[in-house]
Amino acid sequence: MFFILDKILLMIRLTKKQRENLGRVFLDLSKYIFTALVIGQFIALEKFEVSIFIGGSIAFVVFLIIGLAADKGEK
Question: What is the DSSP letter of 13?
Answer without folding.
Answer: T
